[in-house]
Amino acid sequence: PAPVSIFDYSKMGEHPRLLVRMEDFNRMQSAIDSDSRLTAVHQHIIDRGEYLLAQEPLTYEKVGKRLLNVSRAAIERILNMSYLYRMTGEERYLAKAEATINEVSSFPDWNQSEHYLDVAEMAFGVAIGLDWLDQELQQSTKDKAKHALKAYAFDTCMTDDGDIFRRSMSNWNQVCTAGLISAAIACYEDNPSEMAEVIEVLVENNKTHGMTIYNTDGNYSEGYTYWAYGTTYQVITMAALENIFGHDGGLKESVSGFAKTGMWVMFMEGPSGDCFNFSDSNSPVYPRLPL
Prior knowledge:
By secondary structure, this protein is mostly helical. The protein has helices at residues 22-34, 36-53, 68-88, 91-105, 116-132, 139-154, 160-166, 171-186, 192-208, 223-245, 251-254, 261-267. It is 60% helix and 0% strand. It contains twelve helices and no strands. Helix 3 runs antiparallel to helix 4.
């Protein structure tokens, strides 16, 4: 059962609201026009967008037991195209985002019974598109996407399929929490009580499971590489909640090590350009989004 509500859902507001509001897009546009560094970043996104526009439609294709490569491709396409449409107004970006949402929403499943990370990342990508492009998407697209989110994500996250991440004290809990909470924020109007329950239950579960990986000193037991993966999605959860409610429900304060973990990951990097690659880590140092 959902705990006593810790969020004021009257603050949910209009779309877009997942991570950014419309005024944030306007501020970004002004900042890009006045800051050469941001102009360069924006141009890089445009260049990547041109590449993504030319890619073939996504199809249901698993590698071993995973659909994760497809989920990540969907995130990149929907996120990139949605951003570029909001910033430029060019219809071709909207068309590609909408096509991608329809492609993945037509899949027979999101692999919820074999590898729940696939569901979580797919849900995050579809949620971004639904929220950032709410007024522009065709109603049939929104209906199809919301049906897929309900069938593959909301109807499975509290079942045995979702148990694998709810009992996990690892990146799995962090990633799946972020994907499902993002989807609940995007779909809140459709079933406020159910979406609020998803948010409340998963925030409390994240406190007692996903956040515990930072322990008291910020050390991430899965190593440098998984720190970047898990912490990226942990920050997405916190930022999504703070953007709407003004606080993250006590997540940051739930484990003392979280405040120290940014320093810890810096100590994991050597002057050689390699990381201290204990646990399941790759060697090269690379940019870490949560910082």
